[in-house]
Design a protein that fits this description.
about 400 residues; two-stranded antiparallel sheet; 3-stranded mixed sheet; disordered N terminus; single chain; mainly alpha
């Protein structure tokens, strides 16, 4: 399928643009998605007319479900809640450490404010969950104090890892802000926080990244969450278009053809194999970074499930579009994480494990809500409970999503 020209994109309009961008960059691998995937893209092309709040990753109904389970001392939610409350992120004595310029280099060198920013953002989200479950206003005011400290200070992210850092911190901030803004009585500086997200975070995110897929997926997660908080339909549309292009270029299924779908200028056989870490045999569920390591692959899978949760809350459920890829990816990586030996054709027979606490959300959506059998993912998810935090952008997903039907 030829890439759309600028004239053609202008003719398509906003809704068509999302679809056109989504299918661009697939010239070598099979460009035609299956009928269900194509139909879903057409149906979910534009931002919701009205945004739901709280509506980033967790909804009010989901929060109410969690609160009820914790109050009833039901498992695994009570154990997950206790784990969260015992963490440093729930501390009422936490002192935020904002910086005007957060400078993040490759492999955290340099690390000027990077860990502080990510962990303060996770803390704000943790404290907002604690507020909602306990209704103790001290947690809300502490979350607000952290968000206010950063919105009064930060001006930019710099150095090579700036886009990824912005994506990680920018994924947690709107989760916290949505809960506080729409369930707590007072937040005088919320407009300033919104200005921070619009001026400091969104410009670093919205144009995406040509790096490994976990970068752009995390960046689009942040951009979509920020779009909800800002009620910015244009940035939602742009981020969703990039997300739809990246998911099939990150998670392979055999319906794609002999090789994975390309992304951007990487669309020849040699370029795709190189981008996929030298892997030349492709099976359902393998990911672009599988042969790099499972940890980075987990970041990408997690961001995909997080975006899908937000779209579902916003009435634009993308799970039907991505379900086949996501279920295969979760099952494939769970199998090896559980101990199955790698065959010689897979990453030369050597895998670097460490998937992280990232299976709960996708497992709940696909198995519990959609009824898809996922035996390997179920085993890994249940034996890993309660899922904690990766200290980057994943936190407390057994608490928020285990068997959550809302």
């Amino acid at each position: 399928m030829p890439r759309p020209t600028r004239r053609r994109l202008a003719f398509l309009g906003a809704a068509g643009l999302a679809v056109a961008i989504a299918v661009a960059g697939t010239t070598y691998a099979s460009a035609a998605s299956n009928d269900t995937e194509s139909a879903s893209r057409l149906q979910v092309a534009a931002a919701p007319a009205t945004f739901a709040h709280p509506g980033v990753f967790v909804s009010r109904a989901q929060l109410d479900f969690v609160r009820g389970k914790v109050q009833a001392n039901a498992q695994p939610w009570k154990a997950a809640y206790d784990q969260m409350m015992a963490s440093r992120y729930a501390s009422l004595s936490r002192t935020p450490k904002p910086r005007a310029i957060v400078e993040c280099g490759s492999y955290s060198n340099p690390n000027y404010g990077c860990t502080d920013e990510r962990e303060d953002a996770i803390a704000a989200y943790t404290l907002s969950l604690a507020w909602y479950i306990t209704r103790d206003s001290r947690y809300a005011t502490k979350a607000i104090a952290i968000m206010d400290a950063w919105s009064a200070t930060i001006q930019d992210h710099t150095n090579s890892n700036a886009p990824l850092q912005t994506g990680w911190a920018g994924s947690s901030w709107p989760r916290a802000a949505e809960i506080i803004r729409y369930t707590y009585s007072s937040w005088p500086n919320q407009a300033r926080f919104g200005t921070m997200l619009r001026n400091v975070y969104l410009p670093k995110l919205i144009n995406g990244s040509s790096s490994n897929g976990n970068w752009e997926l995390s960046m689009m997660e942040a951009a979509i969450g920020i779009s909800v908080f800002l009620e910015d339909r244009a940035s939602w549309d742009k981020a969703m278009a990039k997300f739809r292009a990246r998911v099939p270029a990150y998670l392979y299924v055999t319906a794609d053809g002999a090789y994975p779908k390309g992304i951007g200028s990487r669309d020849t056989k040699a370029e795709i194999i190189s981008y996929w870490q030298g892997q030349s045999t492709f099976v359902d569920g393998i990911a672009q970074e599988t042969c790099r390591d499972f940890t980075h692959t987990g970041y990408g899978i997690s961001a995909i499930s997080h975006v899908a949760e937000t779209t579902r809350i916003q009435g634009q459920d993308i799970y039907p579009e991505i379900a086949d890829r996501l279920r295969h990816a979760l099952g494939f990586h769970s199998k090896y994480q559980l101990g199955e030996a790698a065959p010689s054709w897979l990453c030369g027979g050597t895998l670097h494990l460490g998937l992280g606490p990232i299976t709960e959300v996708g497992y709940n959506a696909l198995h519990n809500r959609m009824g898809i059998a996922m035996s390997n993912t179920q085993r890994l998810t249940e034996q890993s409970r309660p899922a904690g935090s990766n200290n980057l952008f994943v936190a407390w997903e057994t608490l928020t999503h285990a068997n959550n039907p809302a």
